[in-house]
Amino acid sequence: MxxxxxxxxxxxxxxxxxxxxxxxxxxxxxxxETEAYHYSEPxxxxxxxxxxxxxxxxxxxxxxxxxxxxGIHACFNAVCEPEGVGAAVLVRALQPIxxxxxxxxxxxxxxxxxxxxxxxxxxxxxxxxxxxxxLDLVRPGPIQIDERPAAWRAVxxxxxxxxxxxxAAELPWRxxxxxxxxxxxxxxxRSVAA
DNA sequence: CATGGGATTGACT
DNA sequence: GTCAATCCCATGC
Length: 194
Prior knowledge:
DNA-binding
């Protein structure tokens, strides 16, 4: 994906990333669920400004922001908007397409639907770790995001409220591929076409 | 320097 | 449905 793809409003990028392919090494999956985070709202890590933790979030669009969640899991984001803004898209779920055996080995799970159906699960399945924080997704490297395969070009999206947050919980900044069986959680009845 | 709280998951009732 | 695991780091004294 090009630099300019990420240098746009984060909600637009979150929507457009659904259907794209996230790969790390020999493993890959179609992104079926994303969430947008922006410095202006308190659910975003960038809300507190530039700190050692959030430095990457304020970097160039197209950087990977990887952070540790609950002391246990790694979560993967793509930095968006112009450098210095502080915004990113959290990738929450994938439909696995390549490297299934490696994913199963890393996850210790057989069911395909259990491999990448959550932000902590997909990083474990793909081997994404904290050391990948700050990697440039736009340049050649272990982690890539590629445009939608033909079958996903016209994917229908649903928008919903974000999961697992207590602040700014009302914003409809979660985006899901309609009908996907690989989501981290089903969409709520309140979800609407995006 | 001490404290508290997660953008989660999996095991258990 | 409930709950513990586990650790980084932002905050406040």
